[in-house]
Amino acid sequence: MSDQSAEHPGYTEYHPRWLRRRPSTYWWLERRAYLAFITRELSSIFIAWFIVYLLLFIRAVSRGDASYQQFLAWSRHPVVLVLNVVTFLFVVFHAFTWFNLAPKAMVVHVGGKRLPASVISASNYAAWVAATAFVVWLLLGG
Amino acid sequence: MAKRSLEPILWLLFSAGGVVSALLVPILVLLLGIAFPLGWLSAPSHEHLFAVLRHPLTRVALFGVCVLSLFHGAHRFRFTLYDGLQIKHLNELINLFCYGGAIALSLWAGYLLWVVP
Amino acid sequence: MPDRITMQVARYRPEEDGGQSVQAYEVPCPKDWVVLDGLNYIKDRLDGSLSYRWSCRMGVCGSCGMTVNGEPKLTCETFLSEYGSGPVRVEPLRNFPVIRDLVVEIGDFMRKLVMVKPWIIRADEQDVSAGEYRQTPAELDEYKQFSMCINCMLCYSACPIYGLEPAFIGPAAIALAQRYNLDSRDEGSAERLDVLSEHDGIWGCTFVGECTEVCPKHVDPAGAIQRYKLTAALAGLKSFVLPRSAR
Hints:
The structure holds 3 protein chains of 3 kinds. Chain A is built from 5 helices and 2 strands, in the order ααααββα.
């Protein structure tokens, strides 16, 4: 048997009678878990959109009160509004999935014992609440 | 000798961006994109927002949020294109589009935050 | 509880034309029968030409992995009663080439396991007279979970990345690498890093997480991979910033 396979992982020898089934373009529809995964990944587009929106917002504020009010009026346009609502939903989904999965990557040892995943998750959520409160305070009061 | 690829660094940027965007973007979308335009909460006065924006700490923090979130999104979208659309053979084009886009928008962010009067 | 159930079994005969087909068999369905019992009944009484792998029939050898109603399962641990009145569809494990009927080609998987150097690597081997290497229970716990893998390949079947990119090294291989990296007796992390930080190593993984969901031994390969990504990323960063001292 040739040894080419050792240097090329994934390469199997030419066996015309082995049945090889290629994944369909719609593989992500075949299982609920895959659909949830792709939805999570698509949140990336909405994060990018929001940063663009944020930069436009910053630019509007920099240019004075009139342009700020104009920007708020523009963001009331149904297309922009719907886009932002959808963005909000995707971004929240990203946050939840992120905080639930983050403990997998971070194994923290305190005093020789491993912190359970739930503790790490809980501290992530606590940080989320704190960050949210801070932003609200900053923008509305301060 | 470990191959010197960019992947580890891109992944670290992706992770940092994931944390930052998860913590801050939801509330920012809610306020800036929905609540203020719709008047659910009275939008803050221009004076107040401008004062917050001008502060050097705000500008640095916003820059950080923008750059990290952009790289987070770019990295994730790149893999979505690879796996979702199965166009991995176009990887050079995809990388250029994703990371190039992130860099371009980061430069724009830097410019905008620098020139706040 | 029905006392008979229909099993729809995928057939593939390479010596004939015609690709894959489905053949239905009716098998008895006692309460304690698993899918493997159904397959054995088919082979013993109904159709001796059916080909499939199995061995221990108790969930430790990893031979009997197949796709049952769309999910990767160990057929010796999956009860027919879970499927109510049926039918139960049995197909070969997804993402692998099919040799015949329910038998898949596992050579790629076997080669990938070896690629991660799954053995204790030490700079100096202790002399036998020096006695055994000692390890505390806490040190054992660090890697024990990852040592429970039975090489059943259900995780490779569930991983969409492996399906799309056969060069991807895959969940079990990375978990196996972690089993050794986290072993206090081992000194080979740097060597394994070279293999794993190739593009088709850990960086192809996008944390779908299905590998962990289907693992019958609760190895949690997804956790092993994400944890390793952090380790490898920091090591990669170090080698970028301090190229010489990194090794």
